[in-house]
């Protein structure tokens, strides 16, 4: 049974845009929502929730960082007749110390998980590790383009998850049976150190990039000097703590469990991103 039409919150983001595309490719009616989209949705403006939810049966939920609004939204979704929720969470949020001494991120994600799990509609939780696409679309891209990644990430090995796989699991959970009440931990098929990541990018593009490991304090100080607010800089440092500690090396089975296939490997992501023009000067 397909839970359609589907509302995709954050429909222009890394995961949301791909969920929208993959649902559309399946012929599923999609309502892509964001603060600036045709279907307006603002986590901080509840007057936008009702119109976005009107007539919707399934919702892909990307929470707002630092604002625990998911519980109120789930209540609104249940009142609107939504039957299925798929929540984007994060790997390690239920492991004490996964993000070092910073606990806010884990607490926020866990609060969101609790909200969907107790809210009434069927639910599925996705817990991905670090996105491969951060190198081409996200936080690491500027460093790749400048020729140097300066990060507090130790040897930098992680089982980077291709966001296309995250979207594929979300789409399966929104359009198929058998995923309700499941929490899927998602990763790529093998850990890849930053040195190998940069070698693969160089092989695909000819672009040479070096990795310079920093301490967390050095990293925060550099970001603050660049104009990043200190709380945001500290949040990024905490997010990289599990890479530095080796926690993100772990290979998780969620893609295989949800889709019956292996996750895409990092080399395939690099080849596709390079072919699409990523890292082009």
UniProtKB/TrEMBL annotation:
Residues 10-176 form the NAD(P)-binding domain. It holds the Pfam family NAD_binding_10. Gene3D superfamilies: NAD(P)-binding Rossmann-like Domain (3.40.50.720), UDP-galactose 4-epimerase, domain 1 (3.90.25.10). It comes from the Bacteria. SUPFAM superfamilies: NAD(P)-binding Rossmann-fold domains (SSF51735). Transmembrane segments: none annotated. PANTHER family: PRESTALK A DIFFERENTIATION PROTEIN A (PTHR43162:SF1), PTHR43162. This is NAD(P)H-binding protein.
